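Q: Sequence in, structure out?
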Amino acid sequence: MNLLLDLLVVLLALFLLSTYLSWRAGRLDRLHARVDLARAGLDAALVRRAAVSLELAASRVLDPATSLVLATAAHQARTADPEQREFAESDLSRALRAVLEQPGFRGAVEREGDALLEELETAAQKVAFARRFYNDAVATTRIARRRPLARVLPLAGHAPLPEFFEIDDVPPEVL
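A: Exactly. Output:
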């Protein structure tokens, strides 16, 4: 009888341990899915900002030299390989600030450029929010993966450790 009780206690302990491990692995999986979704949102925001920047460069709002600088930065941001993307996106942010924060720029913009500038400001703000959301998701996932149980057992499977996305994303002051 005592042996049966000991066996039941061991089985219950194994069941509870396996349930907890399954829950932790599921949580890590959900965190990685959240990182993937946040990255997709960040990519969409970055592509939108580059597209609006190209549209501004193609419009007749800017002078030709400024248009060329902005178009080059936007094109490089859209076509950069993953290793260079952070640098290219930071360059686009700096180019946007250099172009749009010029003294007297706002007064020189014609009426048709106002809607485009508002769209650009919205796109730039969305990039800042999307990057912050993505980096928060990465931080949460990295904390969960640093826990002792997740380090000892392969609870995250073969998922790579997510990396932060650090860019200069201070939006230009256009309005």
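The chain has one domain: 2-152.
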